[in-house]
Amino acid sequence: MRQDLKSLPKTLADDVARNLVMVARLLDTEPEEAYKYSRVALRLASRVASVREAAGFASYMTQRYSEALTEFRAARRMTGRADLWPVMADCERGLGRPERAIAMAGEPEVKQLDKAGQVEMRLVAAGARADLEQFDAAVVTLQSPELASSAVHPWTARLRYAYADALIAAGRGEEARDWFAKAAEADTDGATNASERLAEIDGLEFVDAMDEDETDGEESEGAEAGFDDVEDIEDDEDEDDEEAVAQEPQAPARRIAPDEVGDDRVIYEDDEDVEEFYDEDDLEIDEEYEENGDRKRDERG
């Protein structure tokens, strides 16, 4: 960039440089402000490749994909370099043209990219496949020696994360969990939210397991197990309990009666029995609970 600015008069070069410095400082945190500085630099020195590139990234970060593509193409014409090829393809995605992004992934320019650029191109191509709901193809696109390698590079976490995300979309959750874990392990800079995604998956698995326990408990004396995943109900105020009791039951939906005395809970399936079980005014337990003359009130702890 310094070399590019040497083509300008010194005073003008200094003005352009100041605006480019602000673009770099604000691009990640305040992209709209960075965009404003980039437009000033562009008005001052539109014939400088570094300025066109910086303006392209500022437009890209603010989702002005058409402007970004124009600036990237101009910078590429000026320099002859191919390093902007992946981000240009991603602009095509942003403009709703994923087919063009996929076509660009097969162009000769990709062979001119370094390893990081090639990985970036795979990420863009896989994203374009996902845009077209070609989820299995997205998985295949990301499968590469770079993905299989145990070495950690600046792009490793993002590649593993994208692969895990593609597996989720393809309905391969078990494999996705392993790759989110690998992405989290490689993500020392917090470039992804792999740890959060991993926690979400584990949380869903926990809930599923508790649901299975509840189903098993309905057919045995372990009705208490069906309450393991809702034990926080005990901490609710009486107002919440009153609202739950006041709702009209929908047969054959199961009704749940929380115990006001101890920690034990009992599930009742007969709506009339539930109404008898509760005193709606104070939610006190009736002294005796009967059904058809042969069901007695459950023992309480």
CATH topology type of the largest domain = Serine Threonine Protein Phosphatase 5, Tetratricopeptide repeat
The CATH architecture of the largest domain is Alpha Horseshoe
Quaternary structure type: single chain
- Compute the number of helices: 15
Quantity of strands, as a count: 2
- Sketch the major β-sheet: 2 strands, antiparallel
Class inferred from helices and paired strands: mainly alpha
Spatial sequence of strands, sheet with the most strands: 1-2
Estimate the global geometry from the Cα principal axes: elongated
Strand percentage: under 5%
CATH-defined superfamily of the largest domain? Tetratricopeptide repeat domain
Spell the H/E element sequence.
HHHHHHHHHHHHHHEEH
In whole angstroms, how far apart are the ends? 77 Å
Write down the CATH class of the largest domain: Mainly Alpha
Instruction: Give the low-pLDDT segments.
Output: 206-210, 218-238, 244-301
Write down the Rg: 31 Å
